[in-house]
Write a structure and sequence with these properties.
Blueprint (H helix, E strand, L loop, with lengths): L3 H14 L11 E5 L5 E6 L8 H6 L11 E6 L11 H8 L3 E6 L9 H7 L3 E4 L3 H7 L1 H9 L3 E9 L17 H13 L2 E5 H7 L18 E5 L18 E3 L7 H11 L4 E4 L3 H9 L5 E7 L24 E9 L2 E8 L5
Parallel strand pairs: 3-4, 4-5, 6-10, 6-11, 7-8, 7-10, 8-9
Antiparallel strand pairs: 1-2, 1-3, 11-13, 12-13
Amino acid sequence: MASTTERDAMRRALSIARLGPRGVNPQVGAVLLSPEGDVLAEGWHRGAGTPHAEVDALSKLAPGAARGATAIVTLEPCNHTGLTGPCSEALIAAGVIRVVYAVADPGDRSSGGARRLRAAGIDVEAGLLEEEATALLDSWLTVQRLGRPHVTVKWAQSLDGRAAASDGTSRWITGPAARADVHRRRALADAIVAGTGTVLADDPALTARAEDGSLLPDQPMPVVIGSRRVPDSAVLRAHPRGFLQYAGDRASGGLAAALEDLRRRGVQRVFVEGGPAVAASFVRERLADELLVYVAPVLLGGDRLALHDIGVTTMGEARRLAVASVTPLGDDLLFVARPLEGDE
């Protein structure tokens, strides 16, 4: 059973893990504790080809100084040799006697570190602050487990579930605080997806912007789903990163094929917004890992639903969700929900 000191150290490890870059490798943090519970050293992963968090922490100690120590790590120590050596072997060689980690490594080649540590006589405990670590690593874990990017589907709606008024106008259902939150989340994504219907109707820029309208430093790659041509006059054609387009239909392999191509391009986090039809497609095909629903306290009526058909015909087929959080944003509410395990 993890101690209070180890729990505090894991919180610290999660904090310093965020110092590392988001990319093809996970953000990982490590804290080394003395037998008395004092912090000996800490480290984090700084990107592909650099020492992993555990090795980074060990490198800050004199030879032998980690003997008898406990290693607190946000991800199970790896057990393979890639651009760097296996962290499990480094911990064994350093004389560490206990390892506590948050999330198991799901990789085919990199997993097995806990088994290797136990075989060497090291006490290993898994699952400390697992929920927090999973949230940090969600996109990387999705790539490892499912072989595709992590998909967040977002939409804004009125209290009665409409995305637009009867005449098609939709700006703005939500207020400035909600819109600022959307742009912040866009900037965290590697790609932003909209359907051709939204591109043709709204001519969106698909950029991440600050409240003053300026572009944020990090811009996701715009992706259009649908076979209709993006007009030459579309604002999207002036996007600083250009854009990609996929038919998204069954003949082309559908959304799964589009996500696979994006993964090959290094995309790990996809942000889907821009159309009830494309949002419904991701939900219907069980490709949505997270839902962001911004609800405004307005009533619109009519038939402009925020989400189109997702293939549910009876209550027994309803897609059950776990609500992760409900956050007030000005007058609006943001619901963050994820499919329940077994309903993904």
